[in-house]
Amino acid sequence: MKICMIGSGYVGLVSGACFSDLGNTVTCVDIKKDIIEKLNKGIIPIYEPGLQELVLRNLKKKRLLFSTDISSSIRKSDIIFVCVGTPTKNNKTDLKYVINVIKTIKSNLNRYKIIVTKSTVPVTTGDKIAKILKSNKNKNKFDVVSNPEFLREGEAIRDFQFPDRVVVGTNSNKANKIMKKLYLPLIKKGGRYFHTSRRSAELIKYASNAFLATKITFINEIANLCEKINIDVKEIAIGMGLDERIGSRFLRAGPGYGGSCFPKDTRALVSTGRIFNTNLSVVKSVVNSNDNRFNLLLNKISKIMNNKIKNKNITFLGVTFKPGTDDMRESSSLKLIPALSRKGAYINYYEPTGQKKEFKSKNINFFENIRDACKYADLIIIHTEWNEFKQLNFKKITKKKNFKVFDMRNLYSTSEMKKNKINYFSIGR
Which of 28, 83, 261, 374 is catalytic? Predict the structure, then answer.
C-alpha cells in the first residue's frame, strides 16, 4: 500500500519506518526542511534503539521516502496517517496542527483515501475532522479512522512489530477491511486486532495512559507510607504484582511519571471530563499527586543534606524521564536541578544519550563521563535507571570521603550499601 505519514517526529518516523519494513511504500512528510534533509541522509534526529538501522535499510530499498511536499504526498497515497503534535494549552489539547493538516488534506483529495489519526486526540476529534472534510466535491472520497499508537520510548520498534493490540476505530466496513489488511503481517504474528467505534478508540488511548499513570502514582504514595513505617516498597510491589489482576508492571517507586504522553494525556482527560460534565476525580488526584511529588523529593534531598545545600556539589546521573530515550519532556530533573541551583548548590549531570539541556543558571554543568561528573560530588542522585548506573563503584568515582547517594530508582541493595559503608538513601525503603 502507499502510505503518507504527516509529521516525522517520534510517532510518524517510527511508524513510517516500521510500515515500510512490512513492504509498504511510505512517505514521511514534515514542514521542517532540516529534519527531512537529515532523514534522507539516514541521520536520525531522535534517540531510539534500532531505528537508524531500520530507516537505512528501507531507504536503500526505496520503500521509505522523506519529503516536504505534503500536497503531492497526499495525492499519491492510499492511507494518510496524521502524526503531528497535540500539545496541551491551559490543560486542554491544542488541535491547531491537526486542523491545519486536515485542511491541506481536504484540498488534495483526488480519490478515496483513509485519513487516520495516530496523534493522541480528544474524544469527538474524528467527528470534527469528518465535518471539515465533508463537501459535495469530496463525497465518498474519504473515511476518518482512529488508530492510536501505544509505542513506549526506548522499545518503540518492538512495540510496533509485536503489539499487545492494534486498535482501529471506524464505522466504515470498507475502511476497516483495508486497515486490517495493512496490519495483517502483525496479526499473523499474534497481534490482537480490535475493531471498535471511532470515539471508543480515541478514549482507549487516554484511558490506558491514565490508568498506567495511576499505577505509578499509587506505588509512589505507598512508598511515602513505607518510609514512615520502615517497610521496603519493593516487597509491597512484588506482593501486589503476583496478583494477576494487578500485575507487576508500572509498580516501581520513583520520582514520578514524565515524558511526552502521561502528563499531557492525564490533564487532557480531566479537561474532557469537564467538557462533558463528568468529574474524573481519580485522574485529577493522580495529576495533583504527581505534580506535588517534586516538592516531596526536594524536601527529602534537603533532609539528606542536613538542610545544607548551599555550595554543595550535587551530581545527577541521568536526566531523561526514563532510560532508552533522549526525551526530557516533563522529566522531574527539569524541576529539581534548577530548584537546587537556586538554593546555591553546584550541579553536575551526566546523561548516557549525550542529551544536554541548556539550563539558565551558570552553576549547572554537563559532563560526558560519569567519573568527571561525580569527582567532587557531596551527593550523587541516580535519577534515571540506565543500565550503566546499576553496578557503580561509588568510592572510586568520587574523591569526597563523606559523600552520599540518593537512589531514586532503588537500583541498589540497602544492606549491600550499608556493608560497604556508603551513606545511601532510596525511595520507600
Answer: 261
What are the grid coordinates assigned to 217, written together?
Answer: 502514582
What does the CA dihedral 419, 389, 287, 240 come to, rounded to 10 degrees?
-60
Q: Which residues of the chain have pLDDT under 70?
A: none
Report CA-CA distances (Å) from 392 to 89, 333, 376, 386, 398: 41, 21, 16, 11, 11
pLDDT at residue 410, as a whole number: 97
Task: Tell me the CATH number for domain 2-196.
Answer: 3.40.50.720
Q: What class does CATH assign to 231-429?
A: alpha beta
If you search the block for the grid coordinates 560530588, which residue do you land on? Answer: 377
- Where are the domain boundaries for CATH 3.40.50.720 in the chain? 2-196, 231-429
Verify whether residue 261 is a known catalytic residue: yes
Instruction: Check residue 258 and give its pLDDT.
Output: 95
The pLDDT assigned to 88 comes to 85
Show the DSSP H helices in 230-356 as ranges. Answer: 233-241, 262-275, 281-304, 333-342
| Cross-strand partners of 114 | 79, 143
| Cα–Cα nearest to 226, from 237, 216, 211, 242 | 237
List, in sequence order, every residue forming a beta bridge with 3; answer none if it has no partner. Answer: 26, 79
